[in-house]
Amino acid sequence: MSEEFICIGCGVTIQTENPNEIGYAPASSLKREDVLCKRCFRLKNYNETQEVSITDDDFFEMVRSIRDTNGIVVYIVDVFDVSGSMIHNLPRIVGNRPIILVGNKIDLLPKSTNHRKVEQWLRKMAKEAGVRVIDTHLVSSKKGTGLKELTHALENHRKGKDVYIVGTTNVGKSTFVNQVIAASTGMNHVVTTSYFPGTTLGFIEIPLDDQTFLIDTPGIVNRHQMIHYLSEEDVKKITPKKEVKARVYQLESEQTLFIGGLVRIDFTHGEKQSFVCYFSNDIPIHRTKLSNADELYQTHIGKMLAPPDAQSLATLPELREQSFKIPEANTDVVLPGLGWITFPKGNCSVHVYSPVTVPASVRKSFL
Ligand code: GDP
User: Considering 195, 222, 249, which residue would you say is the last residue of a domain?
Assistant: First the structure.
């Protein structure tokens, strides 16, 4: 770059080479007068969501103070995005405080879902991430499902101590805390977290009784979540609002499936089979021949293949290809923060293209 550009948001020197390094802006944005680095671009476009979010390091320092308290921890994960919302080594942060695991957004899973099985699976996932829990609950903060039981269990577990709420961004922490406030004040949607002043550590304290508090901590940003790379409009589209209906596509080998324009799955090897897709109903899915896939992508990205919209395209990291062998029946290919595809038959191979910061992974299906 011959001329030097400065981000009008934070003053960092702009670079156009590496989207994952500080100060990145796409070369096309340098034509504008008000050049913003990727971070400031997202801050501006997300405003509240991103402003309360902080980076992992800051989060660790802040939340670490929980280990010196005698409170208990409510750890919220999103059942629709478990891999994206797991906080690995949470105990390193909160010490040996008792942890209650809460799987939120249970309303998004198919009605036929066996909740007990999901609870067991969540506990197993948590254990694998190094988190041992004393209790597990499934709730829908939006619908209120399971909140009474959770509140009851909390009263038993906390034994008059403070309750710390932790979770990554977008798991529904605010929705949950607002429900607790509504239940304790009886004032639905009038008083929300913004009513309560933040502490010097950035925690928000909501009185549970005369002496103890429910303490809301800032959401941790997990860079593997798709939401951090998309426009506000696209975040709305990819965040499911109601029960996610399985959309089933029959694919032969040498065919390709596009999830909007965010993910491309090439069926490279295997017998004809169902790709059972669990994504927000607002993301269109397209099937095409593998031989047409490159051209379709080039011609229709941001239009028919959307999200991403034009705004997201400016910040979305490039797609990277990963190959997966799927030997077993009922295996999921998971895209953090977006959804997953179940392969009921297995015995096949796929190539998955997703934004480089949002790698796909494979798991045993839990439904
Ligand atoms: P936070 O970033 O963890 O504070 O998450 P928010 O409370 O802002 O919620 C993030 C998104 O998830 C919003 O679109 C909410 O409407 C949605 N959400 C929160 N709780 C639930 C829930 O129980 N079910 C469903 N379907 N959506 C939820």
Answer: 222
Q: Tell whether 77 and 210 lie within a shared domain.
A: yes
Could you give the CA distance from residue 187 to residue 56 in angstroms, rounded to a whole number?
A: 34
DSSP 8-state assignment for residue 31 = G
User: What is the secondary structure of 315-338 as a DSSP string?
Assistant: HPPPEEEEEEEE-SSSEEEEETTT
- Residue 297 C-alpha to ligand 1 middle, in angstroms? 31
- Decide whether any atom of ligand 1 lies within 6 Å of the 173 Cβ: yes
The CA-CA-CA angle for residues 158, 163, 165, to 5°, reads 140
Structure tokens at 183: 């239940």
Assess whether the C-beta atom of 50 lies below 6 angstroms from ligand 1: no
The predicted-structure confidence for 67-117, as pLDDT tens digits, reads as follows 889 999 999 999 999 988 888 778 878 889 999 999 999 999 999 999 999
Look at residue 29 in the predicted model and tell me its pLDDT. 82
Report the alpha-carbon distance of residue 169 to residue 65 in Å, rounded.
Answer: 20
pLDDT in tens, 47-63: 333 333 445 566 666 67
Mapping DSSP to helix (H, G, I), strand (E, B) and coil, where does residue 278 land? strand
Total tally of structural domains belonging to the chain: 3
The residue whose CA has the least distance to atom 14 of ligand 1 is: 239
pLDDT, one tens digit per residue, over 339-359 is 999 999 999 999 999 999 899
The domain of 318 spans: 238-364
Q: Distance (Å, rounded) from C-alpha 38 to C-alpha 19?
A: 8
239 CB under 6 A from ligand 1? yes
233 found inside a domain = no
Say whether both 172 and 299 belong to one domain. no
Q: For strand 263-269 and strand 213-216, is the pairing parallel, antiparallel, or unpaired?
A: unpaired
225: Cβ contacts below 8 Å, ≥ 6 apart: 81, 84, 85, 168, 169, 170, 336, 337, 358
d(CA 38, CA 9): 10
CATH number (domain holding residue 166): 3.40.50.300
Measured at the CA of 327, the angle between CA 326 and CA 330, to 5 degrees, comes to 75
Residues of the chain with pLDDT under 70: 1-2, 8-11, 33, 39-40, 42-62, 184-202
Q: Which residue has tokens 């392969």?
A: 343
pTM value surpassing 0.85: no
